[in-house]
Amino acid sequence: MLVLQILPPLLWLGQIFASPYTLAPFVLHEKRTHTPKGWSHERKHLASAVLPLRFGLKQANIDKLEDYLYDISDPSSPNFGKHWTPMKVANTFAPSTESVAAVHEWLSDNGIAKERLRVTPGKNWIQLDATVEEAERLLLADYHVYRHESGQEHIACDEYYLPEQVAPHIDIVTPSVHFDTVVHLQPMSLDTTILKSDITIVNETYPGVDHCDTQISLDCLRALYNFDYIPTASDLNSYGIVEYTPQTFRQSDLDLFFTNYSIPELVGRPPFPVSIDGGLQQTFNQSVPFIAESHLDLQYGMGLVTPKLNVTLYQVGDTVNPNTSFNNFLDAMDGSYCTYEGGDDPSVDAIYPDTQPGGYDAPPNCGTAKPASVISTSYSYNEADLTPFYVTRQCNEYAKLGLMGITILYSSGDYGVAGNDGDCLNEDGSQTSNGTLFNPTFPGTCPYVTSVGATQVAVGNTVLDPEIAAVRVTSSSVFYSGGGFSNVFEIPRYQKNAVDAYLKNFRTENFAPAVYNSSGTSRAYPDVSANGANFVVAADGEFILEWGTSASTPTTGAILAMINDARLAAGKGTIGFINPTIYSASFREAFNDIKIGSNPGCGTDGFNAAYGWDPVTGLGTPNFEKLRKLWLALP
Ligand SMILES: *[C@@H]1O[C@H](CO)[C@@H](O)[C@H](O)[C@H]1NC(C)=O
Ligand SMILES: *[C@@H]1O[C@H](CO)[C@@H](O)[C@H](O)[C@H]1NC(C)=O
Ligand SMILES: *[C@@H]1O[C@H](CO)[C@@H](O)[C@H](O)[C@H]1NC(C)=O
Ligand SMILES: *[C@@H]1O[C@H](CO)[C@@H](O)[C@H](O)[C@H]1NC(C)=O
Ligand SMILES: *[C@@H]1O[C@H](CO)[C@@H](O)[C@H](O)[C@H]1NC(C)=O
Ligand SMILES: *[C@@H]1O[C@H](CO)[C@@H](O)[C@H](O)[C@H]1NC(C)=O
Ligand SMILES: *[C@@H]1O[C@H](CO)[C@@H](O)[C@H](O)[C@H]1NC(C)=O
């Protein structure tokens, strides 16, 4: 948070209360730089109107989160692999009783009766129904009503302050500067390009490795990544794939795929279903756009690890709520996440019970689902769709899952340096197709997930040739591996050397450094990559081709799940948060460095793939056998 030592003139109005806090210096807590696109200022809010003020309390020890995570995931640390129990994670970060007391004291010193305050059971936030007049006095803020083009109204202030003694205990106050996403037109995006372009039907399937430049099969991936492994420790192991309703799957299509590409044992085998917030396989529409993502993820995710390992399918959200998001999934993984720092954001996340017809009319799932050891998600937002507060809170949760030994994979996006649908940033933070600034993908820019980009077998090449960065251009769509630099997250130390080397040696002259965060101080992505081109998928009784980092991510997940199998079989723990390990010198030899290709977008040719790490294909594609040996040598 920006800290500013000031005594605003308004402060003197507070003197009549003669409290120590009103005389203490206030510090600026949050400030918004612009009014989001589509919204306009309507009027000053009524002084007597009631605001549901919520004070999200700072978690204890959150400043040590990164150190804790390195301590157990840096291969050179003596505590490598000593993952934490969920209980230890919850206890370590629960807000302290001092924080609750400090906020209580401040409010009661300012004339707010204790009976008006409500503290959640987890002591994570304090709620107060305050008049606008009270809120403005407490926060030195001015509340206004804003109106969206669609007619929706929103209450917000431009900035707010907190007393110096109270500020360290509070992370966020709502409602305040946040607009969060605009109206919820575009939820997170599926990272497969099939949905945005014509469907290519495959008339003849080719298992084996003879057509991998035009049709990817399970055999192509096994050959490309030296990945021929039969698991032996499945009862200890788990691999989870996350899908958001209305994406759904049909068993008959899985069976069709496994009949033509895999072994008979897989035919008739469903994934192991875990329902979150009413998640189910919807049957109201199973046309290609509604099954393309689930079928891609399941056919390849399952095909590369089964029949021995059952893949868990986390199906998130009911069929009618368009707002279900990563936070709803994380709530189910970790009961403490449901509430901390104010909990989910009603303007971004689905809020349950959902009382609309057909909605999941029950409390949200909190801590009800067990996280699998490797979790693959092929959906993404643009970092700029969400506020820095929102993405930071969610990113910290990925670090906590890392502490528990869970590996989190997200696709890096399908639009090169541009955001979903090819939108780019403008100086004011808005996103348009004619924007000129690069538009990074979230959660790929969170330093605590592993971001997966896409490669392909160049046309005419075989699985024995080096791959190139993925590229697909049709009359109706383009697909390039998402990559670049965050505008929010600082560079994690595990990738500092790799990113420095890229910026020093391979900075391209094709565009100005001002179009992206070229400071060298921000998180760069992706971390790794895998093939994402020409995946043959059974959908609606036919075979079609799909492209995208959506394909690369479950493929990488399957490989990592099998590394876990090898370690579990040897009596070792799961690999957990892998980034400090894979960027270490010895592991970099276990990736096939991709040196050809780029990721155009925002009117530029994008970054170039290059020797070593690059913001197109990361460290490169995995060599399973090399990785297995290296990981087996770790404690
Ligand atoms: C498959 O057959 C259809 C109909 O004959 C044709 O339109 C399509 O181009 C063929 N697909 C490929 C990949 O050749
Ligand atoms: C799928 O496999 C069956 C049995 O081998 C074969 O008859 C059929 O032609 C295959 N489908 C395609 C589209 O190649
Ligand atoms: C996987 O699922 C199948 C079918 O439900 C079951 O028979 C098998 O025991 C499961 N395997 C493991 C390792 O859980
Ligand atoms: C199913 O979805 C497709 C694609 O959006 C649409 O064209 C079709 O009309 C829908 N079918 C039904 C029955 O709603
Ligand atoms: C989804 O979010 C929007 C924007 O906050 C909200 O207006 C809408 O009611 C939400 N929909 C549901 C079903 O909760
Ligand atoms: C970009 O497009 C928007 C409409 O989407 C338009 O209002 C704006 O003027 C355009 N900006 C430039 C620089 O062309
Ligand atoms: C670049 O990233 C850093 C995070 O390391 C951030 O503090 C800074 O504001 C970003 N710069 C721009 C121009 O977005």
Automatic annotation (TrEMBL):
Cofactor requirements of the protein: Ca(2+)
The UniProt record lists the keyword Hydrolase: yes
Residue numbers annotated as active site: E293, D297, S550
GO BP annotation list: proteolysis
GO MF term set: metal ion binding; serine-type endopeptidase activity; tripeptidyl-peptidase activity
Catalysed reactions listed for this entry: Release of an N-terminal tripeptide from a polypeptide
SUPFAM superfamilies: Protease propeptides/inhibitors, Subtilisin-like
Pfam families: Peptidase_S8, Pro-kuma_activ
Primary localization class, coarse: secreted
Listed GO CC annotations: extracellular region
Coiled coil (UniProt feature): none
PANTHER family tied to this protein: PROTEASE S8 TRIPEPTIDYL PEPTIDASE I CLN2, SERINE PROTEASE AORO, PUTATIVE (AFU_ORTHOLOGUE AFUA_6G10250)-RELATED
Note on how the cofactor is bound: Binds 1 Ca(2+) ion per subunit.
Subcellular location: Secreted, Extracellular space
Signal sequence region: 1-18
Listed name of the protein: tripeptidyl-peptidase II
Residue stretches making up the Peptidase S53 domain: 215-634
SMART domains hit by this protein: Pro-kuma_activ (SM00944)
Catalytic EC class: hydrolase
TM ranges: none
Biological function: Secreted tripeptidyl-peptidase which degrades proteins at acidic pHs and is involved in virulence.
Species name: Rhodocollybia butyracea
EC nos: 3.4.14.10
Key words, A-Z: Calcium, Glycoprotein, Hydrolase, Metal-binding, Protease, Secreted, Serine protease, Signal, Virulence, Zymogen
Residue positions binding Ca(2+): D593, I594, G612, D614
